[in-house]
Amino acid sequence: MLKAAGKKAFCGGNISPGRPFSEALGHRRYEVYVIEISTFQLERCPSFRPNIGVLLNITADHLNRHSLEGYVNLKLSLFKNHRAQDRAVLNADDENIKKRLEQVKGQHILFSLQRTDVDAYLKEGGLFLWDRKIIDRGNLPLAGLHNAANALAAIAVAGEFNLPQEAIRSGLRKFKGLPHRMQYLGKLKGREVYNNSMCTNPVAFYHSVRAFDEPSVIIAGGTEKGLTLEPFIQGVKEQARFVVLFGENAERLKKILEKDSR
């Protein structure tokens, strides 16, 4: 959207493959820096202060490293250095965020799939910014309600930059996603293949598989992070035709799924 509006924008940080923020700062040729930052990085960035910070949701993760409360606080630390003029773009549907709105410094810009009394919202199949319809949800290239929520967050940010509506719409239509995140790879024997290997917690897994209308062959597994597996099990129940398991927790997942299917 920024590039469609003619802005010189850098995209990097904690994305794969990506470029470090520090590398971009050395060039100083960008007007806007779009950075994904992880909780691991926030722990080590005591003075980090984005002019616009975006928090899409707070879902339990990395509990092999943090307590749940510690993880939530790290997420919210994105805004710890905010000043009155800085803006926080927040998911008005997320319970963890709603409970802690008072902790978030700066101006609050809200987006929602469920409410229309916010800045960016879903209404009658359209994505709106304030009272302006930006695009029909059906014109978004990426499937799933979670991607509609992501688009609303991006629209809310675009509004803070006063980007032209056509640039916002053009950016949304052209964005095909990032590598390893619901990345379309093509067809294999007539079946569509997606790479979602950056999806590393059970709740994200559930929303990802729910984006598809038909049951899928799911390849999953990896390293445990101290999280409940219930959303993973539910996603498999609802959407899996077959499951292929690998990684260090493959045997454990196999036993859980076999027990649950009896």
TrEMBL record:
InterPro entries: Mur-like_cat_sf, Mur_ligase_C_dom_sf, Mur_ligase_cen, MurD. SUPFAM superfamilies: MurD-like peptide ligases, catalytic domain, MurD-like peptide ligases, peptide-binding domain. Signal peptide: none annotated. It is found in: Cytoplasm. The lineage of its organism: unclassified sequences, metagenomes, ecological metagenomes. It comes from marine sediment metagenome. Its main location: cytoplasm. GO terms for cellular component: cytoplasm. Pathway: Cell wall biogenesis; peptidoglycan biosynthesis. Residues 28-158 form the Mur ligase central domain. Keywords: ATP-binding, Cytoplasm, Ligase, Nucleotide-binding. This is Mur ligase central domain-containing protein. One of its GO terms (biological process) is regulation of cell shape. GO terms for molecular function: ATP binding; UDP-N-acetylmuramoylalanine-D-glutamate ligase activity. The keyword Cytoplasm applies.
